[in-house]
Amino acid sequence: MNFQPFIEDAEDLYQNAPFGYMTMREDGLIVNINATLLEWLDYPRDEIVLQKSFQDLLGMGEKIYFETHMMPLLQMQGEVSEINLSLKAKGLTRLPTLINARRILNQSDFQPVYRFSVLDITQRKQYELELKKAREKADQTVLRLKQINQDLEQFAYTASHDLQAPLNTISGLISLLEEKGQVSPGNDEKKYFSLIKSNTQRMRLMIKDLLEYSKIDENELEFESVSLNEVSEFALEMIRDQVNKENATFIIPELPTIYGHKIQLVRLFQNLFSNAIKYRSNEDPIIKVAYEDKGDIIKVLVNDNGMGFEMKYADQIFGFMKRLHSHDSISGTGIGLSACKRILEIHGGTIGAQSVHGKGSTFFFTLPKFPNKQGFKDK
After folding, report:
1. What torsion do the CA atoms of 127, 132, 135, 140 make, to the nearest 10 degrees?
2. Does the pLDDT at position 365 exceed 90?
């Protein structure tokens, strides 16, 4: 049987493999190398084989690592894998490689030799560099966005606070003119003053909501054990006048205790309760609270018998200053539900709504029951 074609095929496979192959003696002298690795290093065979040691292809740091770590491991264990080394090519360029090596016994003189398989990871290193740059750029963008957000919050707070004084002055002057009878009923003057008064009240409401929204700062919140029944009671006290005026009924069962920020949770329930009354139907408002225990989280549901809305607007209503009704028909700023969403995001929860137009709505949200979840800080 003629083995020559098989020998030639094996030699061709060795020389032109997609990997670099090399054999060295125990002293590091290179005794064989394939054409693939020679091409990567840009050396002719006669300048490498029996002329250079493996150490000659290494920089100072790699040489120290090879002699103090890699070679002792090879001698003790007989093999090493996934070693990351840069080899010096002829033009002094660096070839980043991943090396696997094995010790074998030379059958002719029973001296050990070491066979290396070498993978060119230049492209991988380029990807890693690009990924590192992309991460650094993303981190810088996040920091910049955080700073912009902090600046916007500070601006909203300062602007809203500073606008309170002139609005109070305008409102006071209008009331004073009305009390002194200097605004005659039934004429254009009365109508103009009424427009000024209603728009002033609208601006005051918007400023109040902006101030509340700007105070929702996740970096300053400390969480504690909070009873949701206590939170609900505080929320109802905050809107007691609205509850009495609209003859609203609240049905609230025994609710669980969770970890959260009490003031922000009061704002959450206050906004949801107030909305349930504001968007009432012709019937007296009836608001029912329920919850579902889902292990690490609870789901709270606030159901009302109000006017409801079409489900195509279910996501829109949680947008900042997004409203489904004009201010003339139902007063509001569109900030309340957006604030609810932000409060729940800080707590690691979510919020959503189900509704049928003319048949009421159910707002539902989730809250983690325990500390050290997403968004939580130990007190």
Report:
1. -140
2. yes
